[in-house]
Please model this.
Amino acid sequence: MKRQAKVIMIQGTMSNAGKSLIAAGLCRIFKQDGYRAAPFKSQNMALNSFITREGLEMGRAQAVQAEAAGVVPSVLMNPILLKPTTDTGSQVIVNGKVQRTMSAREYFSYKKELVPDILKAYHQLEQSYDVIVIEGAGSPAEINLKQDDIVNMGLAQLVDAPVVLVGDIDRGGVFAQLAGTVMLLEPEERARIQGMIINKFRGDSSILLPGVEMIEKITGIPVMGLVPYMQVDIEEEDSLTQRFAVKGTGGALEIAVIRLPRISNFTDFAVLDGIEEVNLRYVDSPHQLGEPDMILLPGTKNTLGDLRWLRQNGLETAICRAVEKGSVVFGICGGYQMLGRRVSDPEQVEAGGTVSGMGLLPVETVLTREKTTVQVRGHFSNISGVLKKLSGMELSGYEIHMGRTEIIPETAASLAAEMTVKSSPKQRKEGCCQRNVYGTYIHGIFDETGIVKVLLTALAERKGIVLSELKEMSRREYKETQYNMLADTLRKNLDMEAVYTMMKEGVRK
Model:
């Protein structure tokens, strides 16, 4: 099969070196330059995933990179997704569908069998795109994992990709990172590295230049760019995100996100970031919670385990007290399940057994092995409480969960009505609300234009304040500004001529 697409691969000296962001920026640059580009990551490990139009699951980083490239996300861009369920096991998702849960040792022995799936996906992409931007995972120099590698140099060799190595200067020791990584590679692997990037640089670049000259001499590989620490708001996908460390300051409204141990899809709240009137905080202890205007319970990959954690460290009690004092609580996916009266796991999807919920919503959940993965559209029903002005507003998002949640007939109402699924003409009700407590399975429920403005205005009215100039940009428009800002920064600080030469000439041996 004749290769149609040019290729470039971004690898890093460590996790969180900035590979995903660099890849996204290149995807946007190629789009701006008139090329049809596609991201690719053979194997991704993340709790924050994305659901395609077909209802298939893939890594969010590749969905973001596809968005930056201006193309529709496809599971071809991420054929293998690992979602950790415990410290030593992960749910294995192949071509968008759950295969089974495996221990790390079991998967390590099995993963080589997935090479045909990886190559099939890659070859399908290269027949439809001009450029493929591949992202590696972690570091190519993990010598205990190099055997049967399918995501770093092993993949680069399979598809004959030139590699750019990214080092993170913000965490220190960037020259040791770069030199050490190169040193631990085999000669044929080193030959694939056609350039290096020093990422997240702050300060006067002239001070760094002697070191750049020395590292080029030591490794024999040119440094293609000094990329500054970028203040761009691009959705992240894993728990290393710096959002969790941010302490909100000065906002008139205080919103607390519970930082669960296995938090997933926390990008649900990205739309609230950067709004001047909002002090958004991630909290993991009762003393951090206080009495916020709104508490957000996010999704989790282990509802039962994180519910027990919530109970043991006192946050459950603190949340219930905050509700009694008037705080609004909004749970999404696993957070919604926790708000109910009971969560049962008869099929041992997680740890098995039954755990009492927080009792803030009259619902009960039964975990099931069948996974729901769909995109949805609909509107808020006639809901109660502080957020009642959301009633009737259009919403959209996606569901990704293993379990069924049913309302116990009382005074509760559904949160969203007339939900439609792309793959089904049937309509259904979804979620639950009672007084000032709300729960839903819909991720991205705040993203439609107008919803955040109504939500924050309602919280302000309850507090007795007026938000005079609440500015709201559509989530889509906001993302576009951030992708363009990312591309502009890379163009200024990266040798794009060298990038294009690398893709044209391939690996110079």
Q: What stands out?
A: Residues 381 and 416 are 5 Å apart (CA to CA). DSSP finds 15 helices and 28 strands in the chain. The longest helix spans residues 475-493.
